[in-house]
Amino acid sequence: MEIFSRMRPSDETFSGDLSLKSWVEDSLPDALQVVDANLIRPEDEHFTDKLKCVTLIMKLALNCCTECPRERISMKDVLAELIKIKHQFQFLMTHTVRS
User: Fold this and answer.
1) Alpha-carbon separation of residue 34 from 59, 90, 94 (angstroms)
2) pTM over 0.90
3) d(Cα 78, Cα 65) in Å, to the nearest integer?
C-alpha cells in the first residue's frame, strides 16, 4: 500500500482512527483516490486497465494485513494472486492494443 499510495503509515495524515489501511479500505472499489498521481493518471493510455490492476493489488495488500494473523492470506497465495494480476494486465494491454 505504501508503494502504490506513496504514503507511510506514520504520515501526519493518519491520526486517530484513520490509518493507511483504513484509508485504502475506504477508497475501494476504486483506488484512484489513494494511488500516487505519478503512477497513473486519468489521461494515461490504458488508464482504466491500469486502475483495475492497481485496485486488485490494493485489495490483495489489505488481505495481507488482516488483524488476525490466522486469517491472513499465505505468501504462496499472495504470489499466485500477483501472477494472476500480472497475466490479467498483460492480457488487457495486448487486447487493447489489437482493438
Assistant:
1) 12, 23, 27
2) no
3) 12
